[in-house]
């Protein structure tokens, strides 16, 4: 190898070392959980099917609570629907049979809780969510006429309730393994 | 003589269809006449007169076959000309309507802008106005050019058929065993080839015009017989590109699996000789290295194509690009349909990103689409959340050689090294074309947000130095936007956003232009944790954290893609490194290059 080549190689190795530390997993699998570890972590979670049941139950209960406290919100439907289905993010991206999904309640509610009733809605929704393990989080945005409450569980699933003119209520599910 | 714009103004395709129907009737009459002629063939008659009659009968029959061949060919030629003329006239009318709707005038084969738009080179808004007018003018000009181009091809096809096939007697020289065969032969001879797209890549406007000048049947024929023509062609509608790529994907996968097997077998055979004591010559060693490189390449192709195939099976995915012409596979995958979405986000990932690992980004785009769709509904711009989500398409644009964290890549200073801008510049040109294609492929306005992370932000910066039609851009964790002044980006003032986590060292490198954290004219997006209620939601801490599911930045990017920048949570989450150093004179020297090893 020429001297210039050796210097280049050394420089490249040095840069890699610096970037590897700085990136900590950016885009690729530089550092992180192994595939086996990732699978084991997922096996310790509820299955995709069980998680879906739980998310649906949570959304239904929260939807009812919002309707009770803010009856002006008219839901487009009574259904809980899936609006997204994808692979899992890292470190679970390559685990076979694992997926994550997004569910929404009532295809959205036309109208929004008033600013006066919103604190009560938040408190009630947080209490319901806590029973389902969504204990972490709070208001991502909390302005008059524009709010977003986000609550997370230990697996990384998020319950999101927000409004401007209309109200949205959704669960962004975490990664889970299918039963079959 | 080829047709020009003025000629096409007089075209009435219905007259061609009328001629086709009449020729069809003539063909039917000839076939009927032929049946009668069979009955008139001399059978139980002999002698000189009989021989003369039989000769005359054969001559008439042959003449009928020749004429039928010619008429069937002309009928087929006119039928195809009708399809072509229909497409041409449709595009002609589109061009006229587009010109009228945008204060443009078509004169002869040129497009003139009637709006006086003075260019003040130092005034960003003026530069943008001028660029946008030019974009409209170019789009209209491409339509006019395509009308003339296609009309010329169609005209020439017919001239060739009539002059060479009929008048010069070439068709008559073809033999057919029967009238029915003559009819089939003529129809086949009259067929013109499939009309090909502009040579080279074509501009997105040219490609869109090409597609719009094809009749629906012709478009289907291109997808079926030549998917490679349009699979990666910017300006072609995305549904067509998706169909083309889905047709090509299994072919590519089979081909590269076969190549992988073959190379492995050859290498194993060579290795087997070595283990059996045969001395391997220097040529053999070279061959072994070559086979190893081939295997590595084939494995990359098989893995990346497999990754695309998996994404293709997810709901609402569209494969908008699949390019095997470079060292690493390139692809573009959309969640949602960019042909119909009112809001489109185009995400360009950075260092270490590749198609093999693209599923991770696909997941992020699926979530981002939902966040944006929900925002549309919250603002009353969609009837429901599902409808809101349908109005959004979020695209992972992995159509460049993004640098990898390997010795080969980092050390390839003339190639795709992260230390250089080669990949960002080349990728930026491609990305600009992709954005231009979004404007070219659609007649209605689409709201476009560009998203660039890490080295992908540099690539996006290069793209946006060109006129692209992008409405706003959000960069995050950027080592530089390729510019020192935000006004060097062709994006309207107030529509450039930047997010940087406080623990993101890459964002402070200022390697490819001024540190965006210190650039006036940029709106800073918060990457902080959400307001605490009990424990904390994840804020973004590191270079790779920006798209965490519940992070502030995901919300911010979602509302930007939905077109509500006023909803974004703004504020700096990191201290600009340069400013921090400048505040301490003893460290001021380090401001220019925080990491000396990254010198340009």
TrEMBL record, chain A:
<dbReference type="GO" id="GO:0005886">
    <property type="term" value="C:plasma membrane"/>
</dbReference>
<dbReference type="InterPro" id="IPR032018">
    <property type="entry name" value="LppA/LppB/LprP"/>
</dbReference>
<keyword id="KW-0564">Palmitate</keyword>
<keyword id="KW-0732">Signal</keyword>
<keyword id="KW-1003">Cell membrane</keyword>
<keyword id="KW-0449">Lipoprotein</keyword>
<dbReference type="Pfam" id="PF16708">
    <property type="entry name" value="LppA"/>
</dbReference>
<protein>
    <submittedName>
        <fullName>LppA family lipoprotein</fullName>
    </submittedName>
</protein>
<keyword id="KW-0472">Membrane</keyword>
UniProtKB/TrEMBL annotation, chain B:
<keyword id="KW-0378">Hydrolase</keyword>
<protein>
    <submittedName>
        <fullName>Alpha/beta hydrolase</fullName>
    </submittedName>
</protein>
<feature type="domain" description="DUF1023">
    <location>
        <begin position="329"/>
        <end position="512"/>
    </location>
</feature>
<dbReference type="GO" id="GO:0016787">
    <property type="term" value="F:hydrolase activity"/>
</dbReference>
<keyword id="KW-0175">Coiled coil</keyword>
<dbReference type="Pfam" id="PF06259">
    <property type="entry name" value="Abhydrolase_8"/>
</dbReference>
<dbReference type="InterPro" id="IPR010427">
    <property type="entry name" value="DUF1023"/>
</dbReference>
<feature type="coiled-coil region">
    <location>
        <begin position="253"/>
        <end position="308"/>
    </location>
</feature>
């Amino acid at each position: 190898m020429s001297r210039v080549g050796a210097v280049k190689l050394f420089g490249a190795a040095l840069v890699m070392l610096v970037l590897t530390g700085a990136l900590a997993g950016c885009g690729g699998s530089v550092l992180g959980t192994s595939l086996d570890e990732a699978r084991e972590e997922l096996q310790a979670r509820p299955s995709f099917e069980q998680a879906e049941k739980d998310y649906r139950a949570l959304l239904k209960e929260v939807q009812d609570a919002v309707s009770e406290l803010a009856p002006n919100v008219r839901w487009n439907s009574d259904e809980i629907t899936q609006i997204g289905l994808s692979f899992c993010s890292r470190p679970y991206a390559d685990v076979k049979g694992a997926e994550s999904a997004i569910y929404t309640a009532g295809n959205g509610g036309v109208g929004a809780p008033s600013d006066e009733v919103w604190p009560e809605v938040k408190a009630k929704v947080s209490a319901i969510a806590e029973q389902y393990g969504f204990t972490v989080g709070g208001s991502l945005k909390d302005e008059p006429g524009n709010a977003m409450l986000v609550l997370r569980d230990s697996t990384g699933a998020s319950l999101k309730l927000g409004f401007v003119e209309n109200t949205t209520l959704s669960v962004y599910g975490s990664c889970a393994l299918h039963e079959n | 003589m080829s047709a020009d714009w003025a000629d096409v103004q007089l075209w009435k395709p219905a007259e061609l269809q009328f001629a086709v129907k009449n020729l069809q009737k003539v063909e039917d009459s000839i076939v009927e006449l032929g049946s009668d002629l069979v009955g008139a063939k001399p059978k139980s008659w002999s002698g000189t007169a009989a021989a003369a009659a039989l000769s005359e009968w054969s001559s008439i029959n042959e003449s009928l076959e020749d004429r039928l061949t010619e008429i069937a060919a002309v009928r087929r030629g006119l039928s195809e000309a009708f399809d072509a003329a229909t497409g041409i006239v449709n595009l002609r009318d589109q061009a006229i309507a587009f010109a009228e709707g945008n204060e443009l005038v078509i004169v002869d084969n040129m497009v003139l802008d009637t709006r006086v738009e003075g260019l003040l080179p130092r005034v960003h808004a003026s530069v943008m106005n001028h660029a946008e007018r030019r974009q409209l003018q170019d789009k209209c000009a491409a339509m006019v050019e395509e009308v003339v181009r296609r009309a010329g091809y169609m005209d020439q096809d017919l001239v060739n058929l009539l002059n060479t096939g009929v008048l010069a007697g070439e068709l008559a020289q073809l033999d057919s065993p029967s009238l029915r065969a003559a009819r089939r032969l003529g129809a086949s001879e009259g067929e013109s080839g499939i009309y090909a797209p502009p040579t080279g890549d074509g501009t997105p406007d040219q490609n869109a015009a090409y597609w719009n000048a094809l009749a629906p049947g012709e478009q289907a024929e291109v997808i079926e017989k030549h998917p490679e023509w349009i699979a990666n062609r910017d300006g072609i509608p995305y549904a067509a590109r998706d169909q083309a790529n889905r047709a090509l994907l299994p072919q590519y996968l089979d081909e590269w699996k076969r190549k992988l097997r073959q190379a492995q077998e050859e290498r194993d055979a060579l290795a087997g000789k070595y283990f059996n004591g045969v001395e391997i010559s220097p040529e053999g060693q070279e061959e072994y290295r070559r086979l190893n490189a081939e295997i590595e390449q084939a494995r990359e192709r098989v893995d990346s194509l497999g990754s695309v195939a998996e994404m293709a099976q997810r709901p609402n995915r569209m494969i908008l690009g699949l390019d095997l012409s470079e060292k690493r596979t390139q692809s573009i995958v959309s969640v949602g349909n960019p042909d119909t979405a009112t809001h489109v986000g185009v995400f360009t990932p950075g260092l270490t990103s590749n198609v093999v690992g693209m599923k991770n980004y696909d997941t992020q785009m699926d979530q981002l689409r939902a966040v944006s769709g929900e925002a549309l509904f919250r603002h009353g711009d969609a009837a429901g959340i599902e409808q809101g989500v349908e109005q959004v398409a979020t695209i992972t644009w992995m159509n460049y050689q993004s640098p990898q964290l390997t010795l080969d890549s980092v050390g390839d200073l003339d190639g795709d090294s992260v230390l250089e801008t080669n990949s960002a510049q080349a990728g930026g040109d491609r990305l600009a074309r992709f954005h231009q294609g979004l404007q070219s492929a659609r007649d209605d306005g689409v709201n476009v947000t560009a998203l660039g992370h890490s080295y992908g932000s540099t690539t996006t910066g290069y793209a946006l130095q060109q006129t692209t039609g992008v409405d706003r851009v959000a960069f995050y964790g950027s080592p530089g936007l390729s510019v020192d002044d935000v006004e060097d980006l062709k994006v309207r003032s107030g529509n450039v956003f930047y997010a940087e986590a406080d623990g993101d060292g890459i964002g402070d490198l200022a390697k490819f232009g001024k540190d965006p954290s210190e650039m006036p004219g940029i709106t800073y997006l918060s990457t902080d944790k959400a307001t605490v209620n009990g424990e904390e939601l994840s804020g973004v801490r590191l270079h790779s954290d920006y798209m965490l599911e519940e992070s502030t930045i995901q919300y911010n990017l979602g509302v930007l893609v939905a077109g509500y920048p006023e909803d974004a949570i703004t504020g700096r989450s990191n201290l600009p490194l340069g400013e921090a150093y400048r505040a301490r004179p003893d460290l001021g020297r380090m401001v220019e290059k925080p990491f000396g090893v990254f010198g340009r």
